[in-house]
Amino acid sequence: MKLFDVLPQNLFSILACKNKSLYTEALFVLRKAFRQEMTIAKSDLVSMLIANLDEALLTIDMDAEKDEFGLEDDDAASGQSLSATAHYILRRLRDTGWIEMEYQPDSFEEIITLPDYTIKLVNTLYSFTDEAVREYNSFVYSTYSALRTADTDRDDFMYNALLTAHENTVKLVDELKSLHNNIRRYHQALNTYVTANEVLKGHFDEYKSLIMDHIYHPLKTLDSVPRFKIPILNIISGWLSDTELRKKIAEQAMQRGKYRSLDEAMDDIIRKMNEINDLYEGMDAMLDEVDRKNSAYTRASMEKMYYLLNTDRSIKGKLVDIITAAAPAFSMAPGRKLPDRGGSPDTEYLIDMLADGVVLYRQGYIDDRSLYTRANKSSRHDDEKPLKIDLPGEDIGEAVIQNFIKNVKKLYSRQKVMAFVDRLMAGREILNSSEIRLENDDEFIMLILAVIDSSEKNRNYRVEFTDGYVECGGYRIPGMRFIRKGTVRNVG
After folding, report:
1. Residues 120 and 172 both lie in one domain
2. What is the rounded distance in angstroms from the CA atom of residue 76 to the CA atom of residue 62?
3. How far apart are CA 180 and CA 202, in angstroms?
4. What pairs with residue 465 in β-bridges?
5. Of 12-26, 401-415, 449-463, which range is least confident?
6. What is the model's pLDDT at position 121?
7. 445 and 317: one domain?
8. Of 280, 225, 144, 146, nearest in space to 216 by CA
9. 9/104 same-domain check
């Protein structure tokens, strides 16, 4: 089966367009939504897009959308409404096959569903942006543990153990190849370092933390291949030589409905066992190659560090390098002596040679003490015509207004308002007006927007008004209190 027999033809078009960053962030919001909920309504997903991407939604280039996807004016969002832009993004995700929509049973509410390939692709894309250090999985011990338990119990889960052992072995080989290539990448990066601090940072903050401590060290100690290799090979050899046992495992495989015949299941089981055996037999050579790469990188890193620490990179050191490099030229003109200078022939020739290659010039600047000629002011005559003033047209004025509105939306975005409320409440469940402290006009505007936005369904707080007004840092605000959702209403 070919790739695009499974995937839609234009699936990756949104990742190659001008607005690809916005679509990628929208996919990450989609991933976050489905990690929290089993199903999600279209209206709720639109609210999440607005809440998480409000500033980014304002930057969408609809002209590029029309050119790249051949949209009509009626098919594209106007760009003036966040809700319209969020709905447009969902339509693009639906049309390209990233999401599917269906109606809730017994209602007309639309819900979003994800194809299986979307979940895999979005998780892969997100993994490139995840800065968390990936922990090493104990592939060797997991293989040994699964095989040992199955060999001891001889129960109905031997085929499952074989699948687990085979999968972990393949992943271990991939991990070793990745480790080998990563060491090579860090080795090549040494050529770009120009200071000792860069070498230290690359070795300890990156290579040691991400490669040595989390992959290489476990492979040499806790999850050592030599430690578990022989028991694994013994178990696999015993299974390969036991015909009745292999038949039992094949019968377990047939119960999964994966194979059409017992012979086909038997052949696949033998192939997996032989592959595990062959990979572990050749793993020592792979580990030796990784050791050589690690030793070469460590040695090169130390040599680079030694060189940088013992090399004078100051101006004095660079002058010494120039003079040292020019020294072989002394022998080119033996006995040469410049007139009226005195000194040895070699010294005079060096001075002459360097003088020919260095160009000196004087540089100055004008300040309040510099000499200048005062300009003569000319008087204006009555018969001269005044300069014509061109007033901006209506289109320019509309563009200025739209730009002003766009800047205001960025200044007081929903994310900034929510962050303002979190800072005011500071972990408290209820915040009264008398406890609010406003420092400037921006915070007063933020407070007004926070009260207005409290009715949105995706806000984690609500506002209740009480009687009277309160003076707060020179601002007069109504009596009210901010209550985190989930807090009992009559508390406080």
Report:
1. no
2. 7
3. 17
4. 480
5. 401-415
6. 92
7. no
8. 225
9. yes
User: Two tokens at 444?
Assistant: 């007063």
Q: What angle do CA 304, 308, 313 make, to 5 degrees?
A: 150
Question: How far apart are the C-alpha atoms of 102 and 316, rounded to whole Å?
Answer: 74
- Shared domain for 355 and 215, answered yes or no, is no
- With tokens 């790739």, the residue in question is 3
| pLDDT surpassing 50 at residue 341 | no
Average pLDDT for 84-93: 89
Mean pLDDT of 141-166: 91
Domain count, the chain: 4
Q: Cα–Cα distance between 221 and 109 in angstroms, integer? A: 56
In the block, tokens 């997996």 appear at: 272
Predicted local confidence at residue 492, as pLDDT: 43
Structural domain span for residue 60: 3-129
pLDDT at 161: 92
- Structural domain contains residue 80: yes
- Examine residue 369 and state whether it is found in any structural domain, yes or no: no
430, two tokens: 């209820």
Question: Is residue 145 predicted with pLDDT exceeding 90?
Answer: yes
Q: Do 301 and 339 fall into the same domain?
A: no
- Helix ranges, 70-138 (H): 82-95, 116-129
Cβ distance 88 to 57 under 8 Å? no
pTM of the model: 0.51
pLDDT digits (tens, 9 = 90+) for 171-193: 889 888 888 888 888 888 888 88
DSSP assignments along 439-466, one per residue: -SHHHHHHHHHHHHHTTSTT-SEEEEEE
Domain annotation covers residue 119: yes
Q: 149 and 125: one domain?
A: no
Three-class SS string for 352-380?
A: HHHHHHCCCCCCCCCCCCCCCCCCCCCCC
